[in-house]
Amino acid sequence: QERLVESGGGLVQPGGSLRLSCAASGFIFANSPMGWFRQGPGQERVFVAGINVAGSKVGYAESVKGRFTIARENDKNAVYLQMDRLEVEDTGVYYCAGLVTSHLDEYWYDIPDMYEFWGQGTRVTVSS
């Protein structure tokens, strides 16, 4: 059974950094584009960053471009989100998500409904 487990969230001051990790199991990770999404208090879940199966193509929400970096290690079945220069607006629960396509898939995806499985989330709070 597919399983995603996020870690690395916490409380950080504005301008600080955090690194989120997502450990995957139960599916062929190298055939799975991955994404990170955020759900703020009282808000819908929104796209943050996506990465294709090879890690060669990435995409970001406009609000995080230049501050966040998504990466993956297929030999470790893991995907990461490095978050720098954090802002109060980055506060929320961060979810890792995946879908199984093909090892030839060159695309990343930013639509939540396209993803087949999700982690339980890790909370990030940016506050002074």
Summarize the structure.
This protein has 128 residues and is mainly beta.
What layout of secondary structure does this protein have?
Elements: E1 3-7, E2 10-12, E3 18-25, E4 34-39, E5 45-51, E6 58-60, E7 68-73, E8 78-83, E9 92-98, E10 117-118, E11 122-126
Parallel strand pairs: 2-11
Antiparallel strand pairs: 1-3, 3-8, 4-5, 4-9, 5-6, 7-8, 9-10, 9-11
Please supply descriptive tags for the structure shown above:
128 residues; mainly beta; 7-stranded mixed beta sheet; globular
Report the span from N to C terminus.
40 Å
The number of distinct β-strands equals 11
> Percent helix among the residues?
under 10%
Largest sheet features: 7 strands, mixed
User: Which structural class do you get from the secondary structure elements?
Assistant: mainly beta
Mean pLDDT: 96
Strand content: over 45%
State the oligomer: single chain
Output the number of helix runs.
Answer: 0
Q: Over all CA atoms, what is the radius of gyration?
A: 14 Å
Shape: globular
List SSEs in N-to-C order.
EEEEEEEEEEE
Low-confidence runs of at least 5 consecutive residues: none
Plain-language structure description:
This protein is an all-beta fold and 128 residues long. The chain is built from no helices and eleven strands. It has strands spanning 3-7, 10-12, 18-25, 34-39, 45-51, 58-60, 68-73, 78-83, 92-98, 117-118, 122-126. Strands 2, 4, 5, 6, 9, 10 and 11 form a seven-stranded mixed beta sheet that branches. A hairpin with a 5-residue loop joins strand 4 and strand 5 (45-51). It is globular, with a radius of gyration of 14 Å. The model has no long low-confidence stretch (mean pLDDT 96).
